[in-house]
């Protein structure tokens, strides 16, 4: 048996990943503020394992406690492989440096960068102890490789996540494990995050009109399609650890 652990699974890309994994016969553990009952129903319909945990990813204490429990279930007897998707994230604050709200900066760094680092640390520890291999996918962004006005915090956290991915992958390779850690840049999708971007101000985010046109022109991909691309790579392709995969290269 295999198990997938997915953060931010109640909607958007995380929801799509959960559905794709279940359709591939893999049980899921979802971590999100709100439980999506559709995932539970699909798991029950397919006779697959399902667990859900609520967690405040901006709280280090909550992350350590919750993912310690999730990892104990994921790396249990009879499991042959674990997949971890660090998917949850926030694009806010959308604001220029000098006008950044302090609390939102802290929340973003904790959610987008510190939480995935802590979660990966917990899962790689459990992998070593249980001798069950793990594949970790850190959901990144093109903003981690290119600066956007108004997104200084978001760009910085995603750039940091990319480097963490590469470094952790290097360490696992040098340790001789079978664990693989990659980053996935999903591109522009029709999700709530895009709605947040479109509702920002022109002053705070100069590219707002371009992002509004993405929606108007139908350029936003459905998250299920984007989720299917990374799941297909993991389960049926050849994964190169440390790589930053872009959705355009997989679809």
From TrEMBL:
Its main location: cytoplasm. One of its GO terms (biological process) is tetrahydrobiopterin biosynthetic process. Keywords: Cytoplasm, NADP, Oxidoreductase. GO terms for molecular function: sepiapterin reductase (NADP+) activity. It is found in: Cytoplasm. InterPro entries: Biopterin_syn/organic_redct, NAD(P)-bd_dom_sf, Sc_DH/Rdtase_CS, SDR_fam. It holds the Pfam family adh_short. It comes from the Bacteria. GO terms for cellular component: cytoplasm. PANTHER family: SEPIAPTERIN REDUCTASE (PTHR44085). Belongs to the short-chain dehydrogenases/reductases (SDR) family. This is Benzil reductase ((S)-benzoin forming).
